[in-house]
Amino acid sequence: FHLYSFFSLLSIEKLIMWPCEGTNVCPRGVVASRNSGDPRKKLITWACIVTLVVLLTSTITFQAIKPEEGNKPSHSHDQVGRNLVTRLLTGGTTTTTTTGMISTACKSTLYPSACESALASVAGRPAKTPKQLFHVSVEFAMSRAHSARSLAYNLTFPYHHKSGPYPPTGTYDCVELLDTTLSLLSDVLDGRKSPTHDDVQTWLSAALTNQVTCQESLGSKPPAAGEASMDTQVQSLTQFISNSLALHKSVEGRRRSWTGVLGSGARGLLSRDDGGFPGWVTASERKLLATAGKDMVADAVVASDGSGTHRSIGEAVAFLGLQAEGGGGGSGRKVIYVTAGTYKENIKIPKGQTNVMLVGDGKGKSVIVGDRNAEDGWTTYQSATVAAQGPGFIARDLTIINSSGPSKHQAVALRIGADHAVVYRCSIEGYQDTLYAHANRQFYRDSDVYGTVD
């Protein structure tokens, strides 16, 4: 409008001041006034120009702000301009399609309001596919998990100066569980891992379980300062992860419902050619499971008499962890051979240590004993004699015991949260909560589990 008005004024000025330029019939007085610079005539000319400018501007402004007949103006000039630019940049796409897609997708969730608030960040972008909306929901859950993890860590700060084994507060459990949750959510979005439908469903389910366990640990003792806000954040995170799981099942379930797992040519949980093991147990791992401990090429040998590379299992696990951090030994299977004997210790294999195998000389020969329990202040989660979080964990030919006794309440012998874990030819012994199959995919075969409650 402004550019058009400017050029129009130039044309008007030219017509008024030089009406006969380029002709042979121009009146003498007009030419004289042009050449002589008569002030009176110039004043009259500019007065005409100003009058025309006012009339033209008023007309343009009136047309710009005049609403359609029967309607009221609903946007400011700036808003109209922004909307115009948005439509130009997006090829005419508005947020209506995306908003409708979000509303429809969130109807399949348990917490639609939380779902819509999580996906609102994409409402201003071009419409997304349901799968892209699922990815956005996981990203949002990750951001909330980071916030919850920071809060949990800050709540544990007063205890950081303490050393040695002591009953930690529930927030310690939450820090570990939220770390694991962040890894799981990252794996869901990691295209390099090419996660399958079952992978994503398993990992999101495990992430949900972690939040429930965090809340249980927080509730196991009288609440400390700040733990109420921790519980609130975890409850909120639970809703967002639950919604991600529902969105994933909604997207992938439709595709799979036509074929089914077996009809699509996928392998079932057990196949004849696997020797009775799940398909995710590789041929090399099945060979290891069939090889005697003394005949294995072990990465570490534990012997209480000092004849091995380490005297305790914990030392061997820590050594292999440091070796992996330093880039030594690669990322393949790590075998720790535990020779016959009794080892009184608590073992933890963290999420970062993958493919660890503990193999002993047989049930009742290679024995690991611990006695942590709820009565002495430990959470159920932290009471485990052996706790494995690293994916690909294998235990074979071992006896694992929590010797606390029935009066000590929750006292776990073996806790596993590792994905693709195998427990083969082991004896797990305790009283209450002997075996804590916490999360992810686990396989047990030829093993004994002893207990009195849960």
From TrEMBL:
<dbReference type="GO" id="GO:0004857">
    <property type="term" value="F:enzyme inhibitor activity"/>
</dbReference>
<dbReference type="InterPro" id="IPR035513">
    <property type="entry name" value="Invertase/methylesterase_inhib"/>
</dbReference>
<dbReference type="InterPro" id="IPR012334">
    <property type="entry name" value="Pectin_lyas_fold"/>
</dbReference>
<dbReference type="GO" id="GO:0030599">
    <property type="term" value="F:pectinesterase activity"/>
</dbReference>
<feature type="transmembrane region" description="Helical">
    <location>
        <begin position="43"/>
        <end position="65"/>
    </location>
</feature>
<dbReference type="InterPro" id="IPR006501">
    <property type="entry name" value="Pectinesterase_inhib_dom"/>
</dbReference>
<comment type="pathway">
    <text>Glycan metabolism; pectin degradation; 2-dehydro-3-deoxy-D-gluconate from pectin: step 1/5.</text>
</comment>
<keyword id="KW-0378">Hydrolase</keyword>
<dbReference type="GO" id="GO:0045490">
    <property type="term" value="P:pectin catabolic process"/>
</dbReference>
<keyword id="KW-0732">Signal</keyword>
<keyword id="KW-0812">Transmembrane</keyword>
<comment type="similarity">
    <text>In the C-terminal section; belongs to the pectinesterase family.</text>
</comment>
<keyword id="KW-0063">Aspartyl esterase</keyword>
<dbReference type="InterPro" id="IPR000070">
    <property type="entry name" value="Pectinesterase_cat"/>
</dbReference>
<dbReference type="Pfam" id="PF04043">
    <property type="entry name" value="PMEI"/>
</dbReference>
<dbReference type="InterPro" id="IPR011050">
    <property type="entry name" value="Pectin_lyase_fold/virulence"/>
</dbReference>
<dbReference type="GO" id="GO:0042545">
    <property type="term" value="P:cell wall modification"/>
</dbReference>
<comment type="similarity">
    <text>In the N-terminal section; belongs to the PMEI family.</text>
</comment>
<feature type="domain" description="Pectinesterase inhibitor">
    <location>
        <begin position="97"/>
        <end position="247"/>
    </location>
</feature>
<feature type="signal peptide">
    <location>
        <begin position="1"/>
        <end position="22"/>
    </location>
</feature>
<dbReference type="Pfam" id="PF01095">
    <property type="entry name" value="Pectinesterase"/>
</dbReference>
<keyword id="KW-1133">Transmembrane helix</keyword>
<protein>
    <submittedName>
        <fullName>Putative pectinesterase/pectinesterase inhibitor 35</fullName>
    </submittedName>
</protein>
<keyword id="KW-0472">Membrane</keyword>
